[in-house]
Write a structure and sequence with these properties.
The chain is α/β, with parallel strands linked by helices. It is built from 20 helices and 35 strands. The protein folds into 4 domains: 187 residues, FAD/NAD(P)-binding domain; 119 residues, FAD/NAD(P)-binding domain; 113 residues, 2-Layer Sandwich (60s Ribosomal Protein L30, Chain: A); 178 residues, PurM-like C-terminal domain (Phosphoribosyl-aminoimidazole Synthetase, Chain A, domain 2), CATH 3.90.650. α1 packs parallel to α3 and α1 packs across α7.
Amino acid sequence: MISTIPITRDLVLLGGGHTHALVLRKWAMKPLPGVQVTLVNPDVKAPYTGMLPGFVAGHYQRKDLDIDLVRLARAAGARLIVDRAIGLDPVAQTVQLADRPDIAFDILSIDIGISSRIPNSDGPSANIIPAKPLGPFADAWDALIDRVSLEKRAANISIIGAGVAGVELALAMAHRLRSLELPAARIELIEATSQPMRELNSGVRRNLIAALVREGIALITDASMDKIDPGSDFIVSTAGASPHAWLADTSLALEDGFICVDKHLQSLNTPGIFAAGDCAHLTHAPRPKAGVFAVRQAPVLFDNLRTALSTGKYRAYHPQQAYLKLISKGDQSALTDKWGIGLSGKWVWRWKDRIDRAFMTQFTEPVAMPAPDLPQQVAQGVIAEVERQKNACGGCGAKVSQDMLSEGLRPTADETSQGRFEDAAIVQTNNGYDVFSTDHLRAFNADPYVLAKVAAIHALGDIWAMGAVPKMVLAQIILPPLVPDKQSAMLTEIMQGARDVFDACGVTISGGHTSSGAELTIGFSISGSTSKPPLTHIGARPGDVLVLTKPIGTGVILAAEMQQRLDGDDYQAALSSMCRLQQDTSRRLSEVASTMTDVTGFGLAGHLLNILDASKVGSRLSLDKLPFLPGAIEASENGIRSTLYPANARLRDRVQGKEDARLDLLFDPQTCGGMLATIPAEKWGRYQADFQASNDSIWQIGTIIEGPAKIRVA
């Protein structure tokens, strides 16, 4: 019997803006059972715009203003899809994405922000960088700083739009460039009207104009685009808000391209679709585009989304008439603007800094996950086991240990195997050899499409490790508790992800089996063939070179991500590594390798020891030559371990080397790990250049030596 609450509704949050970030944080503390939440954003980070001037001025690092959506999605139990929306079908209730199949929704909320308007011109402005979205602008600014620092020259900058945003950026740029002790920069502000900073009171405006004069920043008013200095090497536009173009192709009610919403933040003409932040137009109370409104919309949107997904009464959002502006002047001073009052000084910047850091702290501290409800009376050991499994890993971290597997399978082992198990079963035929393997993964990611790709590549690893080509695939899928239409939708996403992998390998899914269970599990049984004897664990000889084709560290990366202690970029890098196909790599290696295996649940040490035991040799590894995934060494140094690590580490007495966080990663269980192969030295010498010239990554990590079957680490 399945006691887990089934998923009955899909909530899609399109965009990782400030409103959605706060909604997700509230959802983490108060989830709505029965709802699957999906967040879609082009990147794993969502920058906080309030700290942009401080970043440009050099007061903050980039990481200080990035909201980590991977961490936030984990806390909220949401799946994160890193992709860009390109369309919307309100009738079919689907969102079209740039790089993967459409996703379905029952309730949709849109918070995709805006872009800075770029004036039409074929002149110098052809290479304008919009100040929004913030991420690409921040990257471009970093690149300019690196360039002028390397060349030790003055920067030549033009900023289009002399509103508050343009002035803040100009002052911040001047401060940063001056601090680098480079030749004096030339910065110009170009304003199409006669009055810059029209939104400010006269006293604040005079204060900022005086600051521009002190910094030597040229303010050009009543200017057309041809006033841009043709020698400018950095042109930024802050001139107004521009909506995302694809919204015009939807049937949503729009105002100048922005989504028209009512007081409940719901689309005027499409119930079930909400919008917030800069991409929304408040028809009942129009307001300028400002982050303060996005932040204050979050509690109302949170309550209204829950109402739309269940029952209840909608809340109305009433924006304030006036709001406090805290305007940075670049040099860690700032001024206020509200109700005609303009206070200025270093203390205002410190006040703004405290506000901004307090806002970001909400997204840097791990959110406590709700504990499972237990009956008042339970059997002995239940509470301890529930606590142990609270952060139990998925992927290969959920596998049974190697010693337990060997002990359990020993009675069924073929007498000729002498207790040794290969990556796949081998059957000799009239035309060569057939190999058979099966594998499955417990879900470590809430996205069934991505999980299916990972599971498919992982299952193919055993076939590739034998030097074989896959021929037939059967799928085994356990779906979590879902209502029938959600079952169909999830199964469709799983099969699409799997087909993307198997189609690239020239093999189709011929059938399989599905069932319902407590959680999502995806597996595949695969047959392959080779005309030559398959590569096994036997055959390594002293002098052989040891090579590895993927960095290690997926186990500790997945464990750290589950605990909300990992940088989102590192998690995305690990996913990219896991999703990299190795069919061509296997083919190249099989031509020269003496043994080969794929590095998976038993870790690099466990799989290497399988080769050493079977071949009756030893090995020498160099830690300095081992490739590690970004973030893996730091996580290991912080004591983070995958669930299977303690069982793998029982082999520590067969690994000779000083204690080191990198050495610990030899026992880290890998999901979709690389190929580990031994190659005779003379063959490696001939083929090394070919491997390095290919698109495949390959690292020489050590050598095979005379026994005993131990790993010596230097």
